[in-house]
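Chapter summary example.
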Amino acid sequence: MALASANLSVGSGIALSVLCLLSTCAYVWIFTIIISLLNGKSVKANLPRMIRLALAVFGLMIVVCAFIGLVSMAFVGLTKTKPNTVLLTGVLGAAVACVVAYVLALPLCYSIMKYCIETEEKVMAIFKRDYLSGWHQWGFLFIIALLVGIIVMVIDTLVGMPNNILSIASGMRHVSMMEGDSPAVPSTFGLLTFLTTTACTFVMVFVRPWVVFVFYYAYGCIDEKEKARLALRKADVKETASKDRAMDFEEVR
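The structure predicted for these 253 residues follows.
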């Protein structure tokens, strides 16, 4: 019995991993199509770049998760909390680490979009000069991300409400059956739940391209600001150099 349960757990883990991999591939493919519409390149040209981007983001997520875990353990170890408050202290440390990670990761919204649109960019530039350019406009990116997050949360809540209601009903059904009650829902309840989940998920995924367009707009605004800032700096350098030459000429006279 234990062996069968272990085999079932391993099989479920493998199936879940395969589904996650297929879902990630589908998201990369959809994102590549959207980016191809924005930068004018073909899907064939953009797909290898988007795969490299997905691998870089995956590696970054591993680093962030490790950072959150280390900070959480550090909070528990340094504060020397009582056994009954270890969980609360760990959660507090994880929350602090998440805030720090969010603050540091926000400029990536610009550098990643710049990598997607400008095909001559290298993937490592996301974490170098383009990241610094995004850091200069951190407040602007924060406002954009905040508004997008609020709008997406409202849409997901409204669209996902039927699915949430059916999920709660399904959970209550399983609890009542475990207690010995007869099922009070029709036999087609599972099919109805599947169709509702599919429809709600389709609408939620359909909303996601709008998020890409918003950050494409943010990329364009920041790029123009950076060009204006560099042009102003060059103008100041030229003006300073011309004044120095004028002063040198006056001294010669």
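To summarize the output: The CA atoms of residues 5 and 129 lie 52 Å apart.
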